[in-house]
Structure formats: structure tokens, C-alpha cells
Amino acid sequence: MPDFATLNYDGKDYNLPLVTGTENEKAIDISKLRKDSGLVSLDYGYTNTGSTKSQITFVDGEKGILRYRGYNIEDLAAYTTFPETAWLLIYGNLPTREELGTFRRLLTENALIHENLLNFFREMPPSAHPMGILGAVVNALGLFTPRFYDDESKQDAFNLTVASLISKVRTIAAFSYKASIGEPFVYPDAEKSYCSNFLNMMFSSKAKPYNVDPLFVHALNVLLIVHADHEQNCSTSTVRMVGSSQASLYASICAGICALWGPLHGGANQAALETLMNIHQSGLTVKQVIEKAKNKKDPFKLYGFGHRVYKNYDPRAKVLKGLVHTIFDREHIADPLLDIASELEEAALNDDYFIERKLYPNVDFYSGILYHAMEIPTNMLTVMFAIGRLPGWIAHWKEMHDDPLSKINRPRQIYTGYAERPWLPIDNRG
Predict the structure, then answer these.
(1) What residues have CB less than 8 Å from 127, skipping those under 6 apart?
(2) What is the pLDDT of residues 189-210, one digit of tens each?
(3) Integer Cα distance of 230 and 56 in angstroms
(4) For labelling alongside 215, which of 6, 20, 172, 194 has CA 20 to 30 A away?
(5) Whether the Cβ atoms of residue 257 and residue 136 lie closer than 8 Å to each other
(6) Cα separation of 127 and 33, whole Å?
(7) Hey, which residues are catalytic here?
(8) What is the distance between the alpha carbons of residues 380 and 372, in angstroms, rounded to a whole number?
(9) pLDDT of 160-191, one tens digit each?
């Protein structure tokens, strides 16, 4: 077979190189198309455009496959911790015992944030969304840690920056929650693991110490792992876009947080849980909900089903579904939201409308229920997504900067405005 595709335009053939990935996926390299032919591609939403080559994450939406650095998400969720997965994504391999020990030590040592940053939490309006606070404080971290900011090209400094960001992001998240409810901050505990530390900072207080449930620690590890990366999604491509200008890692991550905040991206997990809550409060039957979702004239939206990439059952949703039932059964939790979710899934998977459009449950469908069971507030769900996604963002930022072919991102456009017009004096403008 030829190693190029041929485009015939205006009586001339242009041979465009074919690029084949590890999993035999193929792409047409059009990087020189404009130079050779004067043409550019037009692809709204970049739905069929590859912006880079990457070794980090593989997604097969048709088969429902997700792998980090070659490892299936099911295995990572079952056998690793979030810090191990973070190391894998950023550095390319699962850590050795020594590497993991060093990484965990750095996470512990860098959990605190500068005391002056506490003013951010105190001065924010009480109604401020935690995602807005998270983005602002993460961006400010770059100002409070100039030695990392200036030396990111040096490996030791970069390693310290990575550990600092991944450690501090949970502190910032927990502090934003405490500030929103008017409680004193709970500082990190060096004796606790990554996830148990976060839960303690969130829920412990002098009036009522929090008993960290090992099952919830396991659940949080899994939740963060399944959210850790997902190829060139909106927020990740934003991190790459901003980072391509040589912006700092902090500024790039802040941009990713802002992109994730949108209801069509990371905010969908909050929307999915609120949808279940609204169904419960409305008293609608599952059958009525399904019919409303299929009615194009009805403004109702059923969040938690369908995905831009997956045309099969989202593998992350499978992992979380099993975890939901494990926790609810072991803890004897009776939650009407889970009952509604289970009925909705069964109805959707047996409905021709959903089957034909391949609208399967996605990761948001069960993650919200899990966080709800752990008593994570609804407005914190997207923040939890950001904590999980941070290693993926860092990995892509690093991969882009390590690639000698990387250049500043500058998409093209097709101009559809006015052609040239004569300038008019202000008195002649009607």
C-alpha cells in the first residue's frame, strides 16, 4: 500500500504523507498542504484533526478502550494508587519502589501553601465557585514559587514543581471548601496518604474529627485515576495551546482548569448528579424521563449519557459502576439517586433511540453518585475532576516541551466577513 494519500486539486496531484500510530490508527499529514497548494483544512471543533503525536494515552472510542502508557484503565484502577498513576503519566513508566518513595516524600513535604495565599480564600466572595478559586490560586502559585518558575527546564526543579503542584492542588481544593462554609482550614497531615489527607482536610474540624474510611480512600484513588488523562480533550489541548507559547506550567494549568470548568467538559459531572437530583425531586418516572430526553422540542437534557469519543460503553463508567455497588452494598447505603441511575441505565440500554445513537453511560454518570456518597458537595465535583486530571495536563505539557518538533500553536481559519470596504467619515455612516 502507498505511504501517502493523494489530493487532486485544480488539475494537480498532491501527495500527503500517511502517519500510522502504535495501534494502527492512520492520519494524513497536511502540515505542508497550505505551503504546497494554498489550501487549509476546515474542521469545526477539531473533531477530525490530530494536533500532535503523543505517547501518553490511547483511546479507542468504538471498542471502549482507554490505556495510559499502554496500561488498561481497568488494571490501573484495580492495582495502583493515584500517585503511581501520576508518575506513570508524567515520566512514562510505573515507578520503582525507590522512585515512588521519593515521590511520596515530595508530595508530603510540599503539601502546604504559602501563608500569604490564604488571603485569596478569605477575600473571595462567599458565593465564589470553588473552580474559580482553584484557578486563581494555582496561577498565583507561580508567583510564590519563582525558583520553580525560572528553572522548569532543569530536571530536579521540574520534579519538585510536579510534586508541589500535585500536592498543593488538594490543599487548595480543601481550603476553598472550608472557606465556603466558614470553617477554619485543616492543614495537611504528614502521616496520611494522598487521598486520606485530602478527605481529612475537607471534613475534619476541631469540633468533630473526621474518621477516614479506608473504603472511601480507595474509592477516591480510583476516581482520580480514571480522570487522570483522556488524550486531546478540551482542557488538555488548552494546556498544550497555552504552553506552546512558552507560558509557565502554572499559567498553562490555570488555563486547563478554566477550560475544564465548562458544563460541556468537566462541569458535566455536576450536571449529571443534579439531573438525578432533579428527577428524584420532580417525581417523574424513568419512562417519562427517557421520553423527555428523546423529544427534541423538550429543553430537558439527560446528562451522563453519550460521549464525543466513545461509541461504546465508557470503560471508566464500567470501573466506577462496579465501585458504586461495592461501596453501597458494603456500607448499606440506601440512596434513591442510585436506584434512579440504575433504572435509567437499564432503560437506555434497551431503548432503540439510545442504541442507534450509541448513547451509553459515561464517566460522569457514576462519578457524581460516588462523590455524593462520600459527601463531597455538588459544587466541588468539577474540582475533584481537576485534581485527577492534573497529572495528565502536566504530562502533555512536558511531552510538548520535550518534542523538538513542537512549535507555537496557531490554527488557521476561513474568513467569511466583508471583502475590502472603503473607509467612511463619521458623518457619512448610516
Answers:
(1) none
(2) 999 999 999 999 999 998 888 9
(3) 9
(4) 172
(5) no
(6) 50
(7) 307, 364
(8) 10
(9) 999 999 999 999 999 999 998 889 999 999 99
CA angle 116, 121, 126 (to 5 degrees): 155
Identify the three-state secondary structure at position 204: coil
Q: Position 359: which residue type?
A: L
SS3 call for 129: coil
Provide CB contacts within 8 A for 179, sequence distance 6+.
121, 122, 124, 133, 185
Q: Cell for 305?
A: 449519557
Domains in the chain, start-ordered, CATH in brackets?
4-65 (2.20.28), 72-265+387-402 (1.10.580.10), 268-373 (1.10.230.10)
Q: How far apart are CA 342 and CA 325, in angstroms?
A: 10
**CA distances, 115 to each of 132, 137, 157 (Å):** 19, 12, 22
Spatial neighbors of 278 by CB under 8 A, at least 6 apart, are none
- Output helix, strand, coil percentages for the chain, rounded to the nearest 5: 55, 5, 40
Q: How buried is 402 (Cβ within 10 angstroms: 0-12 exposed, 13-18 middle, 19+ buried)?
A: exposed
Burial class (CB in 10 A: 0-12, 13-18, 19+), 142: buried
* Of the listed ranges 116-130, 213-227, 272-286, 322-336, the one predicted with least confidence: 322-336
Give the DSSP letter of residue 184.
Answer: P
